[in-house]
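Database export, one record per block. Field names are fixed; values are copied verbatim from the stored entry.
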Amino acid sequence: MSNIQNVIACNLMSYRKKNQLSLDKMSKLTNVSKNMLSQIERGESNPTITTLWKIANGLHLSLSELTTQQQDNVNFIDSTDILPIEDDNVVVYPYFPYDKSRQFEMFKMEIQPGCEKSSEGHHLNSEEFIIVNKGVLTISVNDEVYNIDETQALRFNSDIAHTYQNNTSELITFTATVYYQ
């Protein structure tokens, strides 16, 4: 079992037990099968980012609450300390996991050339702030398409479906901050 699988398994099981949820109830909340949730909790499945987003949204958690080891007062983060979440042609690096007292999470995302990643939307009234570090990122929100380069940034209400696209031949990297109200 990879380290990230272990972290997700522990976080999911802890959440379920703390909130006294059965696998059936959790399955209904997340639209993820009971069997898949059980496999994830046992560390027998490496869930996709899409599955993790379904779980996070259904349980009203941030993605990083599922994928990051709980730590006390983090003052310095080295990229070698981060457990990346990999899914097909997308990698997410959760630099600053969700903290209820701050109500945000921040992560770096990499998208391979010619690839895209869709999100069903985050929690109600959430906002996302994007800063492109390298390349030109295309984001579709509310039937509007935005091309953001390294000199630009974008803020949008992220509780609706949106898609991140790399329509170039170069790797794109960007930093995203999701604020939860």
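Remark 1: The radius of gyration is 16 Å.
Remark 2: The mean pLDDT is 89.
End of record.
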